[in-house]
Amino acid sequence: MAQSRLEKIGTIFTRVQGLLRGGAMRSEDKPIWYDVYAAFPPKAEPRFDRPAPEIPVRNIFYAEDVVRAKLHKQNRPQETINLLDHRRTTQSQHFVKIYQDLKSQGALDEQRIYDTALDLLAEQRQQSRLDTAAAEENLPELDAEVKTQLVSDFKEAASNQQITSSTSPAPSKARKDTGVGINIDSLFKD
């Protein structure tokens, strides 16, 4: 064998290099990263026994994160969120947008901006509920239109089928001979 496959001996680069030299791996099969690593080796070799650097992890907070956290702490979310739907914005996104718009005007302090944004969000929710209720009231009229359209479409299809069956009698006789027991011509008669 060209070299050991144990991860504690050498690096992945030295192991692939050994496989290439020993003929266990063809040069066409070498990984894409091999030539890049050979051309630009890292400053510190990535070995198993190398200690991890002690770099402190920075906290990354955006201004809207603090506002969103305050919103969710004081008000329990009342919506179901579909993570696959990118077109619809959530209530917290609406709230942050309202909050930022009010803050950009600069006339109020932080607490008043927060309270005003909550009130405006509640008004928007109420308005959307009213719009939904109004749309549901208009549905019966729409249903009547859809029903008449469906009835006319079925009548048209029935008349088209009767015309087709009267012009070509041979296929209808073949259907009757199959033994299914259903006469399609009689289904659409008035």
Gap between N and C termini: 85 Å
Shape: flat
Q: Sheet with the most strands? A: none
Relative strand content = under 5%
Oligomerization category of the chains in this entry: single chain
Query: What's the helix-strand series?
Result: HHHHHHHH
Structural class estimated from helices and strands: mainly alpha
Low-confidence sequence ranges:
171-178
Mean pLDDT: 80
Count the beta strands. 0
Number of helix segments? 8
Helix content: 55-70%
Total tally of structural domains:
3
Radius of gyration: 36 Å
Task: Report what the structure shows.
With 190 residues, the protein is an all-alpha fold. It folds into three domains: 1-55, no CATH class; 63-137; 139-187. It has helices spanning 12-22, 33-39, 63-74, 91-105, 110-137, 139-167, 169-177, 184-187. The radius of gyration is 36 Å and the shape is flat. Residues 171-178 have low confidence and may be disordered.
Short description:
The protein has 190 residues and is mainly α.
List keywords for this structure.
190 residues; mainly alpha; 0% strand; 3 domains; Ribosomal_mS23_met; ribonucleoprotein
Secondary-structure blueprint of this entry?
Elements: H1 12-22, H2 33-39, H3 63-74, H4 91-105, H5 110-137, H6 139-167, H7 169-177, H8 184-187
Helix pairs in contact: 3-4, 4-5
